[in-house]
Structure prediction request, 191 residues.
Amino acid sequence: MPKNLLTFYCCIAIIASFTFTSTAQPNKGRFIDASIGFGLSYPNEDINIGASGFFIQGEYVYAIKKWFGVRPYLAFVSTKFNEELSDEALKDYDISTSAVMFGTKVRLAIPIPYVAPFIEVGVGGSVGKFVTYTPFTNVEKKGFQFHIPFTLGLAVGRDNGVDLAFAYYYHPSAEQFTGAAAIGLSFPLDE
Prediction:
């Protein structure tokens, strides 16, 4: 047997053995996941205007499998226009968000020990105020807005109990993306 083929089979065997013993939800069962992070808002156009602020989120996690879970969430984000992040010619424009967001996401994870990548998608709603004022857009929305959540991240640690994630919430009617660079912890409800 050629040396490269033997190495390939050994790698497959090692990955397969880790897959059956690892956790990425972090386990099957029910959990509470709490996240906090740096909130961001950007318009839905290619322009250098941004807002920064605060983000906090709580999720009830029902992990059906180690690689699949349903995650209803409640979050709060507050961002204000950051002139330092914008071009000098765009100082008269604005983007900001102050909203409570809620909905449900599903997580698909690759159950690898210590570092498990995941993706989340779902549907939700927001209640609050959204301002998107750019050279091409002049939108100010208050009240209820529909949004689409999308998250990319890693579940890290021995039991994958810590999430490092980039969470995005697309608000089509406000013509902006709200998001966060966040860290989260999972707390099991089933013992």
